[in-house]
Design goal:
The protein is an all-alpha fold and about 50 residues long. It has one helix and no strands. It is rod-shaped.
Length: about 50
Amino acid sequence: MTQQRVLLREARATPDAVEAAEHRTRRAALAATGQAGVVLATKAGAWAADR
């Protein structure tokens, strides 16, 4: 598989992974504190595929 295809596949998967992480974090915060807080979600390594 070419590097461009790998990067494109990763780029398409990243928003879904970030959204899933955000939902899990919000649910955990709500369970722990009873309040939905502010969540900053990022996908580590999303940009590292070209290294």
